[in-house]
Amino acid sequence: MEENNNLTAERSLEIITEQIAQSRKTVSKEVGQSLFVSGICIIGIAILTTICLLLTGNTLFYLLYGLIPVLVIGIDNYNKKDKPKAPVSLVGSMVDKTWQTFGIFALSFCVFAIHFNFFMGRINTPDMYARFAIHPFRIILLLMGMAITINGYILKSRWLIWCGIIGGIGGFILESFGVADMFLSRLFDLASFNRYSHIPPCIMVVLFAFVGVLLPGIMLKKQSL
């Protein structure tokens, strides 16, 4: 009797392990698809925004980046429209909560940065404003890299972990030290640099989107096949 109980317990543990593995594989496929779509949308919007800025010089076109979550959510919902809804799992719930947390922190920080910069621009000289202005882009890169890395640990995907680390920390460092600006300033004179100053942010966004979002999305999709 005791032996049968042990076998039943072992079999139950095997079933639970298999279900967790299958759940992780299913969620990996969904996350891979979402990351793939997100990478394409980010790169597309970055290029479109930069073209509009170069043609018009109107910085309001930076607001086009706000279309990224709308496009990603819309395309994701469209892709899942005719597919059966997957049952809620611990792995899927953890992944969802990670991205929800990222969204809350990133959106809150952006709203604060916009209002803070607007206020500082009204009460300070241009030199003082340049010193105290908040640059949310580098922080968002870091936060998104952290979210992708955490997803990698949840899904046990080394590709996702390393892409998140390299994309997040690398993007943060390159943006903080103005590496793209430095290279651009060596290629053009001051007048041309001012004209093409919108290109470095585009380069940073495209590099981050490829390394930290699109590439892990492709790898996760292949891994889950």
Describe this structure as you would to a colleague.
The chain is mainly α and 225 residues long. 84% of the residues lie in helices and 0% in strands. Helix 5 packs antiparallel against helix 6. The mean pLDDT is 77.
The helix tally amounts to: 9
What is the overall shape?
Answer: elongated
Distance between the first and last residues' Cα: 42 Å
Note the beta-strand portion. under 5%
| Amount of helix | over 70%
Radius of gyration: 22 Å
Q: Mean pLDDT across all residues, rounded?
A: 77
Following the backbone from N to C, one meets helices and strands in this order, namely HHHHHHHHH
Low-confidence stretches: none
Quick structural overview:
The protein is an all-alpha fold.
What key phrases describe this protein's structure?
mainly alpha; 225 residues; 9 helices
Sequence-ordered SSE layout with sheet pairings:
Blueprint: H1 2-56, H2 67-80, H3 90-123, H4 126-132, H5 136-155, H6 158-176, H7 179-187, H8 190-195, H9 199-223
